[in-house]
Design brief:
9-stranded mixed sheet; binds adenosine-5'-diphosphate; binds magnesium ion; globular; 15 helices; BirA Bifunctional Protein, domain 2
Length: 441
């Protein structure tokens, strides 16, 4: 993509309403545009990152055995009356009336709808386990939408729903999602720690929030340093095997949000291991048993022929929140530092003398070679000052900058800068290409 043709509305200064660094940087880098309080348009650069995050989530859900569906954003109020949540949900639900005076709503979540789908088709334990997910926009009329896409009113969520014949098998479904989540966040360059969370009236231990540490986080969290250093399960993990040992290697260590914090247990940790921090909730997994299947009549016959309400869990990932969360975890004074796996482009190619035939030709050759090798390149072909070019590239945070100017070309060299470390190397064109295309990702 040529920068001269790319819709990248960079702002010199962050609008005053932006309070936290990710919101400021997303506005300055032209990633999003606020349309109403807590409602955003995604501009080209922002959408690319959003899609990459969605793709990683999707791959790891599929790997863990979940199947993708797509449910609508608009739901019928009657469905929610069946579970009793239509009145209980309160003002966070955006209620709509259609032309026939039918009551509708913009879905804040999909437990009711997925339960309706399930009960329409599935009758027997033989069709289980089942886990269905979608990546869809939600609307929650938050009292205080803030921090940009971090706490929006309209936001993109991955929500999965598992169905099992009993609680024991539901635990296996839960463990699969637990492991899938560890892998998902790690692939985005994040350390997300599973922390015990409220289970409500269900009780038990099957509710975890996945939290990344950041000073601007909305929750107060406590954990042991050891969890921050834990390696995550590999790509070869067998999701049909018993995942209890993996899950317990995490859950046996101390990590809790404010509501679940146990001061005595925390104090028992060695002092140098105690981490007290702010955290951002980027995911939440939850077993809720027959809470919806019972009132909504979603039953399956067991091997004994007796019909019983199906056991369910739900598993959310804040896809749009993650864009901001990753920036909170990875930036410096000059701008965003995208981890390779979610970067909107792999390489920023900077032409220091646009219009100079020799430099233009060298850039065109590098652009073609990188593109042919499968790299996504943003080519700054605009005739502006070098300082402004560097500032823009640092702001938008592409992993690599390949800098090409007449001076270097006279010596047969180009410059390669790694955004994360600031490290610069002067190389031949061939060496630069070899280095960029050899990268595993
Ligand atoms: N208002 C919001 N804006 C952006 N992301 C959100 C918002 N509310 C929830 N999320 C994301 O969706 C995930 C699943 O939501 P859920 O646990 O149902 O929300 P909550 O914790 O607010 O009850 C959360 O972990 C979070 O990452
Ligand atoms: Mg939650």
């Amino acid at each position: 993509m040529r920068l001269s043709r790319y819709f990248l509305p960079i702002l010199k200064e962050a609008p005053r309403e932006a309070e936290i660094v990710s919101h400021k940087l997303m506005l300055r880098a032209g990633m999003i545009r606020q349309q109403s309080a807590g409602i955003y348009s995604w501009l080209p650069l922002g959408l690319k990152v959003l899609d990459k995050i969605g793709d990683i989530v999707r791959e790891e859900q599929n790997r863990a055995g979940a199947q993708e569906v797509l449910m609508p954003t608009i739901q019928s109020a009657d469905l929610w009356r069946e579970s009793g949540r239509y009145d209980a949900y309160g003002k966070e639900m955006l209620r709509i009336t259609d032309r026939h005076e039918r009551e509708m709503l913009y879905g804040p979540t999909n437990e009711e709808m997925i339960t309706e789908i399930f009960r329409s088709y599935v009758r027997s334990y033989r069709d289980l386990p089942l886990n269905l997910y979608h990546i869809q926009w939600k609307f929650r009329d938050e009292v205080r939408p803030r921090f940009g896409v971090m706490r929006g009113r309209e936001f993109l969520m991955k929500d999965a729903y598992s169905f099992d014949v009993d609680q024991e098998r539901a635990r296996h479904a839960y463990n699969r999602m637990f492991v899938a989540y560890l892998r998902t966040y790690a692939r985005m360059g994040l350390k997300a720690i599973p922390m015990r969370a409220d289970t409500g009236p269900i009780g038990g231990d099957m509710s975890h929030e996945f939290i990344i540490l950041a000073s601007t986080g909305e929750s107060q969290v406590y954990c042991t340093q050891d969890l921050l250093d834990m390696p995550v399960p590999g790509v070869d993990t067998d999701f049909d095997a018993d995942l209890t040992p993996i899950v317990e290697s995490f859950t046996s260590q101390y990590a809790a949000t404010e509501e679940k914090h146990d001061e005595a247990a925390f104090a028992a940790l060695p002092e140098d291991k105690r981490v007290t921090a702010r955290g951002i909730e980027v995911g939440h997994i939850f077993y809720f048993g027959t809470k919806y299947s019972e009132p909504m009549g979603a039953k399956v016959a067991g091997p004994d022929g007796v019909e019983r309400p199906v056991h369910m869990g739900s598993y959310g990932v804040g896809v749009s929140r993650l864009v901001a969360g990753i920036i909170e975890a990875s930036h410096d004074a000059a701008g965003i530092i995208w981890p390779d796996a979610v970067a909107p482009f792999d390489v920023g190619l900077i032409n220091l003398k646009a219009g100079d035939a020799n430099t233009d030709a060298a850039c065109a050759g590098l652009y073609a070679a990188l593109t042919a090798a499968g790299k996504d390149v943003l080519y700054d072909d605009v005739d502006t000052r070098a300082g402004a070019k560097f500032a823009t590239m640092d702001l938008i945070g592409l992993p690599w900058q390949l800098i090409v100017g007449p001076k270097g070309l006279a010596d047969g060299t180009v410059e390669l800068k790694r955004r994360a470390t600031g490290e610069r190397q002067v190389l031949s064109r061939e060496a630069a290409l070899a280095l960029l295309t050899a990268k595993a990702n």
